[in-house]
Amino acid sequence: MTTQQLIDQIKKKKSFLCVGLDVDLNKIPQHLLQTEDPIFEFNKAIIDATHHLCVAYKPNIAFFEAYGLKGWQALEKTINYLNKNHPEIFTIADAKRGDIGNTSTMYAKAFFEDLAFDSVTIAPYMGKDSVEPFLAFKEKHTILLALTSNLGAFDFQTKLVDGKELYKQVLETSKTYANSENLMYVVGATKAEYLSEIRQIIPNSFLLVPGVGAQGGNLQDVCKYGMTKDVGLLINSSRGIIYASNQEDFAQAAAQKAEVLQKEMQAILES
Amino acid sequence: MTTQQLIDQIKKKKSFLCVGLDVDLNKIPQHLLQTEDPIFEFNKAIIDATHHLCVAYKPNIAFFEAYGLKGWQALEKTINYLNKNHPEIFTIADAKRGDIGNTSTMYAKAFFEDLAFDSVTIAPYMGKDSVEPFLAFKEKHTILLALTSNLGAFDFQTKLVDGKELYKQVLETSKTYANSENLMYVVGATKAEYLSEIRQIIPNSFLLVPGVGAQGGNLQDVCKYGMTKDVGLLINSSRGIIYASNQEDFAQAAAQKAEVLQKEMQAILES
Distance between CA atoms of B202 and A130, rounded to whole angstroms? Predict the structure, then answer.
């Protein structure tokens, strides 16, 4: 999917919501555990109930890998279901990969070819040759970790490197990578005040923003400091939407939570 | 496996060799492609031929994920084969994971519980709460990226943070994490001269050292600067061993290459 197609979807749906699929068998409605593939059944129900309210889904790969072969199978079924039924929706493999060149190429094949995601999240620690193999894929997007939403972000990301925070060095250095137009960035909503400085470095890039909701980030602040003329934001909510209820009404409850966010986004877009 | 058990194996086998399993279907002997599970058949033959010469195996998870469900199945079979037939061998999931706390917990479950590896490689960019969920597992080991063997290592890892290289900040900060005694570190052999300074920060920790062989690192230099009284090194070789031949003799050819390294290690240990 091209960036323009994503922007068109945002304008059409009046939403820049991404729904995170972090499926924990201890948290989903217990009646689903009787089905053959509870993870996929949960995802399918969530997707069926929310697809008109969001522009992206973000399966969190850890939550599939933790269930081994069955988890990987559920991941395949989830991405295939999305690509078949909702090809207009942007898909994000939240995998936080990154390795030496030939290994990154294999990860890129895993997520862009075998699973056919539109994008994948990548950790920057290993530098240029760990990121460029992902950028080499046309019409695919590499979402580089810049400033994450967790407390550990202050361990290294905000430390000064040559007088500038490491996450800003990551932003600036990554602009020099081959095919850097395929880059998006992770910037946590819990650090909204950093967004205006980030926008000075990457004025137009899309940002994937976790941390609204369960982690305490504020949508209004993120938009105030981070929005571009083409929106340029994908706001992720995972637990706040998908675990709105753990009863039989879970999918409708998720849709209600998603709609609250979508309406708030619509108001911002129309203001 | 405890660190002491690993040290005992090193002394018994007179080897601190780790064999990397980076199985690329384009590089393995073509006759294996006729079998039902070429990736596992390749690994099994390599393990059968080399297990007496090494103390660790390191499946590179990207090379399994790239083949989707079949790849994951081959990974399961490989680790199960190792744990059943060679429980004395240290196993490393080279996965380079790392995410916010609850997600890292799921990755830890995937590699320590579902797949029952002894250790997993982790990227430090997201800091403390992305690493500690792995450290919480008893008798498991978290191998944190410090200074990697690729060119991109110079993008960020060697940059000065408060007057000290980022990779040294990673080493020092990680020592304050809960259960830090379960930490090992990745330090590339291509940067052997850095090892004496690294040993001032972490005098006793085990180092996983990639880059000997295909990437140009030198075993003598690594040992000179990095070895401790308990050895403290696992030297990885992947392509240099497993792709020694792409004919029917591939496993024997791999064993010959492994034996050259093991003999070199034995000479160092006995000198």
Answer: 26
Nearest to A76 among B63, B68, B151 (CB): B68
In chain A the first and final C-alpha atoms are separated, in Å, by 28
- Which of A64, A106, A164, A187 is the mutation pick for testing B, counting most B CBs within 10 A? A106
* B84 catalytically annotated: no
On chain B, the residues whose CB falls within 8 A of the CB of A160 are: 161-162
Which helix (DSSP H) or strand (DSSP E) does residue A19 occupy? strand A17-21
C-alpha torsion sign, points A53, A59, A63, A64: positive
Q: What is the CATH number of the domain that holds B70?
A: 3.20.20.70
Which amino acid, A11?
K
Look up the ipTM and state it. Answer: 0.96
Interface of A with B in 61-100 (CB under 8 A): 62-63, 65-69, 71-73, 76, 94, 96-100
DSSP bridge partners of A58: A20
Q: Tell me, what DSSP letter sits at residue A204? A: S
Q: pLDDT (tens digit, 9 = 90+) per residue, A71-88?
A: 999 999 999 999 999 999
- The residue range of the domain holding B72 is 3-270
Map residue B109 onto helix, strand or coil. Answer: helix
pLDDT, one tens digit per residue, over B120-151 is 999 999 999 999 999 999 999 999 999 999 99
B161 with A161: Cβ contact below 8 A:
yes
Low-confidence ranges of chain A (pLDDT < 70): 214-216
Structural domain count of chain A:
1
Give Cβ neighbours of residue A176 (< 8 Å, ≥ 6 apart).
none
Cα–Cα distance for residue pair A248/A31, rounded to 1 Å: 8
- Secondary structure (3-state) at B97: strand
pLDDT value at residue B193: 83
Most A CBs within 10 Å: which of B24, B155, B177, as the mutation test of the A interface?
Answer: B155
CA distance to partner chain B, nearest, from residue A125 (Å): 6
Of A128, A107, A2, A129, nearest to A61 (Cα)? A107
Please check the confidence at residue B224 and state whether its pLDDT lies above 70: yes
A51 Cα to chain B: minimum distance (Å): 24
